[in-house]
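Record filed below.
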Amino acid sequence: MADLKQYISNHKLFDDLSDDELMTLSGATTLKKFYSGNILHYEKDRQDNIYFLLTGGLKIYKVDRMDNEIFMYNITSGSLISEITDLDGSIGCFANAEFTKDSEVLVFDYSTFKDIFSNNTKFLLNLIKEFAKKTKMLQCIINREIVFDGTAKVAFMLVQDLESFNTLKKGDIAYMLNIQPETLSRILNKLFRNSLIQNDGQDIKIIDLDGLKALFE
């Protein structure tokens, strides 16, 4: 329990818990290990636990009627995984969650977790901030999947997350943007020709930030 208490207290989300609250929460917590490719939950599952990603990575996605994966977003270390959709019952899952790396997860009993945030307004505010980040991600998904065309999707990711763009494989980027790899290559070539980006060794470098932003704003 002492180790679990330390794991929990190391993360900013739990900064405003008292020592007694940390002890109570750690007593209702388990540490689980998952491997890349493991499924945490499927869409429409109901759960009685809250999940927090200590280390590793997780992708959130849906599956359409043709069994095609529709990528939504990634969850990185030190982040809350679960969405609290119902304060009175169990927790609903609105999408599938699959680990992309070997990971460690804190599993909180929802009833204990709820009792603590119901009586600690500072902790509740921290949770609201965490959910606000998820809301912002969902807003980006709406733009990406409904408003943006392929060029706008690529330009947006270049502007917002150039580091990931230069780190990930092109096939993974195409998957995340829900476009074909060939489409990604054509768009990048067009951006090169229009002098919006250039190759800086192995990496892409933005040379016309305003020009890229004009493609999606």
Remarks:
- The chain has a mean pLDDT of 89.
